[in-house]
Structures are given as C-alpha cells and as structure tokens.
Amino acid sequence: MTRKPEILIVYTGGTIGMVKDYQTGALKAFDFSQILEKIPELKLLNCNISTISFEEPIDSSNMNIDYYVNIAEIIANNYEKFDGFVVLTGSDTMSYTSSAISFMFENLKKPVIFTGSQLPIGHLRTDAKENLITSIEIASAYNEEEPIVKEVGLYFEYKLYRANRTTKINAEQFEAFTSMNYPPIAESGVHLNFNHHLLLDPSKNGDKLIFRKNLDNNIAILKLFPGITEKVVRAYLSIPGLKGLIIETYGAGNAPTKEWFLMFLKDCIAQGVFIVNVTQCAGGSVILGHYETSSALKSLGVIDGKDITTETAVAKMMYLLGEKLSKEDFKRYFETSLRGEITN
Ligand code: ASP
Q1: pLDDT (tens digit per residue) in 273-309
Q2: Whose CA is nearest to atom 5 of ligand 1?
Q3: What is the DSSP string of 44-87?
Q4: Which helix (H) or strand (E) segment is 323 a member of?
Q5: Coil/strand/helix, residue 344
Q6: How many C-beta neighbours within 10 Å does residue 246 have?
Q7: Of all atoms in ligand 1, which is nearest to the CA of residue 58?
Q8: What global pTM score does this model have?
Q9: Of ligand 1's atoms, which has the minimum distance to the CA of residue 93?
Q10: Separation of 64 CA from ligand 1 center, angstroms?
Q11: In the record, which residues are listed under signal peptide (predicted)?
Q12: Which residue of the set 15, 249, 309, 312 is catalytic?
C-alpha cells in the first residue's frame, strides 16, 4: 500500500477497556479515546488509528441484537473511509457477536477483527496489549492494494480464527478461544503468518457491500441430557412467538427415539418452528442418518447443523429468520456455508 492504512477501533466494552474502581474494587470502563495515551506503542504502528466508542460501554453479558446493529452500522457507515476495523468487545459473548456481524455483511472485502482480553489494559500482566497491537497489524496487513484478510476474524493469544468458527473455552487462561473445526487463519510469533489457503476469498462475490440488519431473536436452545423429561421439552412449545429452535444433540447428532420426543419435534415443526440439529460436542459434525437415533430427525425435516458451533447457529438463525425465507430456502441456506461457518 502506498499510504498508511486507516484503521478504526470500535470499542463496545469488556474487560480490555476497564480500570479498577478503587472505592468498590469492581472493574468499570474508562474513556477509550485515551487509548493512544494508555498504549503509546500504538503510535509506532505503520497505520493511522481512529477510535469510536459506545457512549456507555457494556459488559458483553448485556450484548443483544440492538448492539449488533450498532456495531454493524458503525462499520457500514465508515466502510469506505477505513481500510480495516478492530472491534473490541468482552470476550464472554465475542463468538456470538462476531458471528452475527459476519452474516450481516455480504461481499465484505476488508478485515474486521474482533479482540478483547482477560485482564484490563492497565494491568501489569495484561494480555490486552498483544491482542490489540496484533489485531491492528492484521487489520492493516495489505498485499499491494489488497487487504490480506477479507472476512470477520477473532484474534486472541497469538491466533487469528475465522470468527464464526470460534468458542470461548476458558474463563481464566489467556488462551480463551478455540476453533475445533477450522484451523487458525493466521498465527503470530516472531512473524505474523497468514494461512492464505484458509482465508475466505470473496473475489467472486459482488463488489458492493450488502448490509442486512433485520435480525430476529425469537429463538431458543434446547440442550439434551440423559433423563430430560417430556414436560421440560414440551415447555418450549408454549414459548410465545418462537420461530427457531437449536437442539444440542449428542455426538454425531443423536437424540432420544422415544415417541414423546418425536411427537414434540413434529408438533414444533407443525407450529412452523425451524429446528436445527447441532452437536453438543466441542468438535466434529452432525452426520444425520449415521445412527438410527438421528435418522428419525432427518426424516422429520430437522435442519442439519453439520459442524456449526452453537454460537454461530444462534447468529445464523437470527440472521436467516430476519430474511423471512420460505421453509425450503431457510433449510437450504442453513445447510450451506454462507461465510465459511460450516464445512460443506
Ligand atoms: N465480562 C467481560 C465481558 O465479556 C469479560 C471480558 O471482557 O473478557 O464483557
């Protein structure tokens, strides 16, 4: 690139931007426009940095679809002006948020890198500096005039993952995320190494960024466990306005074959609820029809979540419900990779 890349940091909240309130001992957000003063090293990076912050930064436990739209609007409104985006959110729900953003943008051709930290930026042993500095480097990595990453990524502890493949796996360790079904798309050590063959290639997509923000959160998750009772599962049928249900099944997509369970699925489908089968295993895929216990689900018309994570199934369901698709199209799109979120 012949000029310095312009990078926009979007701060929404989370531990990374917090300081200790010495009166209460609790963590609270600091004014993020001071970020360049807090981390003078940022001035050494080969890019120009601008920041934009939520007026009231949030703990990511309070994240919701309105905030998704806020984040996506900031990116959409600044898309032409900036070369790359770094979005800071709390790590607790970062996989959900970054997955949702990945669906909301079609034809994305610039890097959108989510990061955060386990310790606040002012803490002596903080992981925030490395996470932030490398995320900015990734967002400003260009090959000639082309950005290297043209998708939504999540960077944490030396690894850049495809965001919609990630899961938070540790509440304490700096290595807080993993991506069981897709390798890291970049790794940082002495060098920043991109796994070029694993990056999304949107060159065949249209040129114009399409931004969709009609998310529908009338959904629920049902996690199976041995001993689950009929009255528990049937309670889902009385959720007013329910449109989508993600069932976290066992292993390769297996569920009880008891009549009451199959009746529940039939009744849900008859009510017009879309049911997606996702495995509760951390890695691997649903393989419908592999066992008798999953064949029944297949013949009832349950959607195959393949190797999607629960976090991304939630985001994809909200996105596709918002598109108001026909039954057939909903199933077809859910079972197809839209942003590299499943292995086809
Ligand atoms: N509770 C924080 C949040 O998700 C944790 C973090 O930032 O890592 O907002």
Answers
A1: 999 999 999 999 998 877 777 788 888 999 999 999 9
A2: 90
A3: GSSSEEEEEEEEEEE-GGG--HHHHHHHHHHHHHTTTT-SEEEE
A4: none
A5: coil
A6: 23
A7: 9
A8: 0.95
A9: 4
A10: 14
A11: none
A12: 15
